[in-house]
Amino acid sequence: MRRTNYEAYKQLSGIRDDYITEAELPRAYVKRSMRRRRLKSRLSRVVQSNWFVAAVCTIVSLSTASWIAYMGQRVPTEVPPPYGSMQESTATQYGDQDPMILYANPYEGMSREELYELYARQETAISRAVTDHANRQYQTPYYVFVSDTENGARVLNKLTGKYESICKIEGCEHTNPEDCPATYTKGLVPGSLRVANDCIYAVLESGQGEQALFTFDLDLTHPQMRGAYTSPSPVDMAYRNLLVANGTIYDVCMSITPKDGRFHFDSALFIVENGDIQEFASMISHIRDGALLYFSTHEGIMQANLQTGEIFPLLSAAELGYEVYHLPERDSSSGYPLLTALKNGRLYIETVTVTGESRYCTLTLDTMTLDPYIPAWEETAPESFLVYDGTAYMVKQGIVYAAHLDGADTKMVARLPDGQACILVSCDGRILYAETETHILMIELETGKIYIP
Amino acid sequence: MKDDGIIELFQSRDEKAIEMTAERYGRYCMQIAMNILHNEWDAEECVNDAYLRLWNSIPPARPKVLRAFLGRIVRNLSIDRHRSIHRAGYNSNLEVSLEGLMEELGDCIPSDDEVPGSVLEALPGLFDGFLEKETELNRKLFVGRYWHGYSMAVLAEGYGISEDAVDGRLRRIRERLRNYLEERGIRI
């Protein structure tokens, strides 16, 4: 195939300024692919550097036990020891020591009941941690759900520290294969996992795009299909929120469809147990606080009472300072709001504009006052961040930091091995879960120890 | 700080100009460089070189749109850097390689080893003339793909059309560009 001349290709740079700026897409679209590329780029450097170290070791023939032990500690290659053999660590809290990588389970010694108690105390905070990040996966008292499009849905068992497949549930004897979660190989639909009423609710997706709601016992046994979805079409679905209140399952599905130059936000409420479909409200992000649900739509911030079904507007788009997303005009004032946290009676709101810029403010619910603020992650431009219970966790150049939402009091939590990149997945107040291209890392917040299950 | 303020800092040779530029446009520049180089280290170096180039350009230059002016510098430096890396034997196989983009344009932009200087000088104006005749969406797709280096998937998501539709539109735009340039005496 012919390839154009470098110099001729460079002349494209000289086109009119307005053609360049009008073709620039909002950063939100390219951010995700950029992050993926950064991760790949960094991981490939780690692999290259490890090859280099391995080659040097071979050439110089430093085959002493101490070198092997050293390399083994830096880049673990051994088969993980069985559950119950956690290694000793000398790591100190927030220290800047070399990363302490351990193969073990930081929940060792805890019973299921203790683990569930820990979870129950932090349930509300856990549900907040994933707001705004549809790709972040929820966790249950025993499991962390891991997105894995190649291997199907997988879970990390906290009690054993090992991966298990959701598709290989013992005792699953469904006569109709479509009723079996093993059919839904693509795994968990983002935003669709809830733990309530002593069971797990999860929407799973098959390789063909079919979706169905399942319930499981807390140890992932006794799966039951509660209903399959036919509408809206899964391919149009951008986001969904599964809520369980007063024994009723509210499944809010939202789709974003470009039409006539505008983004249309459609939503439907599924009450799965009796098969009814009711219109509820379009929802971009939400935070639940007991019976109250705060959610954002393209029109502003709303509050819903899940017990009475009443919905109140809190802030309009105009009060938040943006216009409804309108693509062809590319008006830099248009955008949509995201709720990032609820802490000390204040809602933390991020307004993303059409040009990809973010503005941040807080809404004090008692007084309904709106104040601007600069969050910690915006100042430090991290590669990944996660908000959990009012604390922002962020990764920058291979180091995990924690900071208050207002940006104050930044502390180092842990240093990642070889400065590699990772994406923060979830947090339970004790362990921060991070995903690299090859591993899930469990970072103990108190000690900075890193565990690889 | 807004563009006018930053340009004033450059004019008065205040080194804070670089800091302010990096703060306002750092991520934008990294995105352009990463779309061409796919390597964070190389991209960072190009972006830093671009700040220096900007420092040396203003004054005398006084750009009307700083964003586009700086983006243009980053793009050109990134292409140069990619070229030197490529000469050294490096071959990127990531999602949108510069080689891929240049091959796509191989049949509609001059591909000879040596292109006369007069042709190179005329090309930006010819591109402008061609893009002016295209629809807004086609123009955005073309510039998004070949200037900003967006992948088909990002363009499809951004404009709410399928990847096949993006591919088809780009193919037809390239055919029209070839005819447009040939009609004006440019040898492809």
CATH class of the largest domain in chain B: Mainly Alpha
Helices and strands of chain B, in order, run as HHHHHHHHH
Number of helices of chain B: 9
The most extensive interface, with participating residues per chain, is: A-B, 44 and 63 residues
How many domains of chain B? The number is 2
Most strands sheet of chain A: 5 strands, mixed
CATH topology of the largest domain in chain B: Arc Repressor Mutant, subunit A
Biggest sheet statistics of chain B: none
In the CATH hierarchy, the architecture of the largest domain in chain B is: Orthogonal Bundle
The Rg value of chain B, from CA coordinates, equals 18 Å
Q: Report the end-to-end length of chain B measured between terminal Cα atoms.
A: 44 Å
Mean pLDDT of chain B: 82
Number of helices of chain A: 7
Helical residue percent of chain B? over 70%
- Percentage of residues in DSSP E strands of chain B: under 5%
> Strand order within the widest sheet of chain A?
1-30-29-28-27
CATH homologous superfamily classification of the largest domain in chain B: Winged helix-like DNA-binding domain superfamily/Winged helix DNA-binding domain
What class do helices, strands and sheet pairing of chain A give?
Answer: alpha+beta
Number of strand elements of chain A: 30
The counted number of beta strands of chain B is 0
Could you describe the 3D structure shown?
The complex is a heterodimer of chains A (453) and B (188). Chain A is of the alpha+beta class and 453 residues long. Chain A has helices spanning 6-10, 17-22, 27-60, 65-74, 112-129, 317-320, 376-380, and strands at residues 101-102, 143-146, 154-157, 162-165, 187-188, 194-196, 199-205, 211-217, 224-228, 237-245, 248-259, 262-271, 276-278, 285-289, 292-297, 300-305, 311-316, 323-324, 334-343, 346-353, 358-364, 369-372, 384-388, 391-396, 399-404, 411-415, 423-427, 431-435, 440-444, 450-451. Mean pLDDT of chain A is 64; it is low at 32-97, 124-136, 231-239, 256-268, 272-282 and 326-330. Residues 88-95 of chain B have low confidence and may be disordered. With 188 residues, chain B is an all-alpha fold. The longest helix of chain B has 22 residues, at 16-37. Chain B is globular, with a radius of gyration of 18 Å. In chain B, helix 2 (16-37) packs across helix 4 (66-87). Chains A and B meet through helix 1, helix 2, helix 3 and strand 11 of A and helix 2, helix 4, helix 5, helix 6 and helix 7 of B.
